[in-house]
Inverse folding.
């Protein structure tokens, strides 16, 4: 059963609250491949989402691939499909690892998150299998492992809904397009650069996160900050660090009102647009990539109720 879009989006204006819950230091990401009905899996996850916050104080955000959401009867944001691998200049490559479901848990500590992660796994038995898992954390004062502040381009939370949530009257209203990628850092190579060169790679100062002037055209800031008609095409980042001695990096999570602005950002980073590759991608490379829709609270209830 597919819900009628004419009535389906009339009052869907409530994004999942876990998207906006700031200040949590422990994170846990789960990706699943469906083995049963999409609606059954979403129903199970929605039960966990509604109960986790009250019982354990853990925020739960549910993401579905465009295909899984459609199979469940939902109507998603326009233009959202499967993540496709990206080939850029000088050997840049971003692989596609699209799964059916993404579940983001975050809270005060990893112990509570593990408890809820196990609950998620049990709730999906028979309808989905774990395809990938990544515990993560906030590094010091919201820094990337490179030592530079992460998320400096984020709009204030009160303004973030405008850039991160599909507007009323559009398919998927109240939901968000989500980009999920795991990036592996070569910290030894980055740390071998002198401080001025490190700042040129990022495009900001390390100590006070002040944008460089002039801004190097291949700097990370210079590639990911995109303007159209004089206005920045903003996104809302909720990334976190992960790893240990063997492998470590950034688990990149970005929310947007449409997929186009995220696609443009990735194309600019890869150098596919103008041949200028993001300098940071010479010290960090993606090993996963997927698109998800984070449906509104009302959309989730409507699909489950159907």
């Amino acid at each position: 059963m597919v819900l009628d879009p004419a009535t389906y989006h009339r009052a869907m204006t409530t994004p999942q609250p876990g998207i906006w819950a700031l200040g949590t230091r422990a994170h846990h990401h789960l990706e699943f491949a469906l083995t049963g009905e999409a609606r059954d899996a979403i129903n199970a996850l929605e039960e966990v989402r509604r109960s986790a916050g009250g019982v354990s104080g853990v925020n739960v955000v549910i993401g579905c691939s465009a295909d899984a959401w459609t199979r469940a009867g939902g109507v998603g944001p326009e233009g959202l499909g499967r993540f496709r691998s990206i080939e850029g200049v000088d050997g840049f490559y971003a692989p596609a690892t699209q799964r059916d479901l993404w579940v983001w848990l975050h809270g005060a500590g990893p112990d509570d998150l593990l408890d809820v992660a196990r609950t998620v796994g049990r709730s999906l038995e028979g309808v989905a299998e774990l395809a990938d898992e990544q515990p993560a954390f906030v590094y010091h004062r919201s820094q990337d492992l490179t030592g530079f502040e992460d998320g400096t381009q984020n709009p204030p939370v009160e303004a973030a809904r405008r850039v991160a949530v599909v507007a009323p009257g559009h398919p998927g209203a109240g939901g968000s397009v989500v980009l999920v990628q795991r990036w592996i850092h070569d910290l030894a190579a980055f740390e071998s650069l002198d401080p001025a060169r490190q700042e040129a790679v990022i495009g900001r100062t390390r100590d006070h996160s002040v944008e460089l002037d002039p801004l190097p055209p291949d700097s990370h800031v210079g590639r990911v900050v995109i303007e159209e008609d004089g206005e920045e095409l903003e996104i809302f980042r909720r990334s976190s660090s992960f790893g240990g001695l063997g492998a470590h990096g950034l688990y990149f999570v970005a929310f947007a009102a449409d997929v186009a602005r995220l696609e443009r950002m990735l194309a600019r980073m890869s150098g596919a647009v103008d041949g200028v590759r993001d300098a940071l991608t010479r010290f960090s490379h993606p090993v996963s990539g997927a698109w998800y829709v984070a449906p509104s609270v009302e959309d989730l209830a409507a699909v489950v109720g159907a």
About this structure: DSSP finds ten helices and 14 strands in the chain. The chain has one domain: 5-305.
